[in-house]
Amino acid sequence: MRSNGLLKKAKYCDNCKILCFQVRQSEKVDQCVFRCSKGRTKYSIRQDSFFSCSHLPLKTILTVMYLFMMKVPMKTMMKMLLGISSKTMVDWFNLCRDICSWRILEDIYKLGEDEDDIVEIHESKFGRKRKYAKESTRNQEGTWVFGMIGRKRQRVFIFAVEDRKRETLQPYMQAHIKSGATVHSDELSTYFNLKDIGYNHKTVNHSEEFVSAEGIHTYTIEGFWGNGKHHFKQIREVNRNLLGPHLDEIMYRGNYKNTDIVRKFFHDVTAKFNVNHDLPKDATNQYKSI
């Protein structure tokens, strides 16, 4: 874990500024701590890391992280990791989604940056319909999600939105689609002014056809909705306040699906926490590997 930057490779005392020793302390979950040789101050080996908020064994947390990224169902995890409550498991899932959210925010790019790329935009309603809901309320259930995807690189942005009005969706387009890009959509009236704001906009009328005679379609983003909705079918109802992190996870998995996503995820944990940021540039791993 130290060699991968998940734990500090060295620790200097906050007070004395001298290198701490790693000493055995059997009553601690990690069986060891950092200790200053002068002031005798002790520090957790998890200090400043992704693991600092938990008392679970490091091996257990790593297993949860790995299984989360492999999309192993929670019921299966509970059988594999006896002794961990469902609440603790959910808490760690949410912490893992925080990493996904952080990476999405850190990756600054716009769709349609390649001249030969096509950006598809579409909106879909997420949320389960209640079986016995009145007909008048069924259409009000769920949350609208707006999506944009670049065909060439298969990079995607999706956001929960209040409605499909022009003033709601247009800021997302301008923030995440390069001006001048080619944009394909259906004929929702919200999109009718896209040429006026600098996009090469082409449409397909879904009431008549799914692919126009010119080859205009939104199959890519609509296919992505299928993956997103499958994600929510695997879990219980999601609080509206937690919908964003779940959408970030879906984006993360979609944007990095062609990589070793487990390795990518652990690399992002290292990058976000940067536990060795305060060490001298020539500092080396001073302790036995963990």
TrEMBL record:
Keywords: Membrane, Transmembrane, Transmembrane helix. The chain crosses the membrane at residues 49-69. This is ISXO2-like transposase domain-containing protein. SMART domains: DDE_Tnp_IS1595 (SM01126). It comes from the Eukaryota. The keyword Membrane applies. Residues 110-255 form the ISXO2-like transposase domain.
